[in-house]
Amino acid sequence: MKAERPPAITIRRVYESPEPGEGPRWLVDRIWPRGLTKAAAGLAGWAKDAAPSSVLRQWFGHEPERFAEFRRRYLAELRACPEASDALIAAAHAGPLVLVYAAHDETHNNAVVLREYLMERMRA
Fold it and tell me: Would you say the pTM of this structure is higher than 0.90?
């Protein structure tokens, strides 16, 4: 019996152009990215409810030294409301999925944590 491959979930900035065959793009920010039209975004969906709460997002302020605590708090929010990410789980089961975000920092952002959470849920 062939082992099932884990779903491919990648992360990219929403301002980057889609690459051929990368899969549907889902925005994972609570607020719409500045200067971007819905047509230009090329999104399959907007997982607004899976984004960090406004209070947590504002507290984090994209300050890298707060990332470890942000990660801990955001994972707690996601685990408290798993249905908020159900559409993303379904999309990942259907094929490659791209989580897109607007932050400049490619290492310290909510999409990194959300990808970790989705992979954790899918392994369970």
Answer: yes
